[in-house]
Amino acid sequence: MRKLLAVVAVAACSPAYDTAALDTFTNAYACPVERQTIARMPAPAAVAADPERRELWERAHHIYDIAGCGRTARYECEVDGDLIFCNPYVAALDPLAR
Which of 14, 56, 84, 85 could, after both became Cys, cross-link 20 (CB 3.0–4.6 A)? Predict the structure, then answer.
């Protein structure tokens, strides 16, 4: 009697925050992705200077500046269940940005 052993490997991949931010910008401004530029907002200087704090920041903060079609926007993206949501970034609500 043969036993069948099935091994399933699931690659752990981080959500595509940048893609979600680009999609949000595209929908808000009817701007094709090919005309957009995107940059991830770096950690504040005090956080970036400390490797442990920087790593925590990079895992928790997914903030993107996007420009295209004569417009600019900054979005903060987060995961909720299986979906990624990107909303306009509000610095006043970020205690590290004060």
Answer: 84
Distance (Å, rounded) from C-alpha 90 to C-alpha 60?
15
Q: Look-up: residue for tokens 């295209």?
A: 68
pLDDT tens for residues 38-87?
Answer: 999 999 999 999 999 999 999 888 999 999 999 999 999 998 888 899 99
pTM: 0.76
Residue 8 lies in a domain: no
**Residue 1 is assigned to a structural domain of this protein:** no
Q: List Cβ neighbours of 48 (8 Å cut-off, separation of 6 or more).
A: 42, 54, 57
Give the dihedral sign, CA 66/39/36/27: negative
Q: What is the rounded CA–CA span in Å between residue 77 and residue 10?
A: 24
Q: Where in the sequence is the domain holding 61, given as residue range(s)? A: 17-97
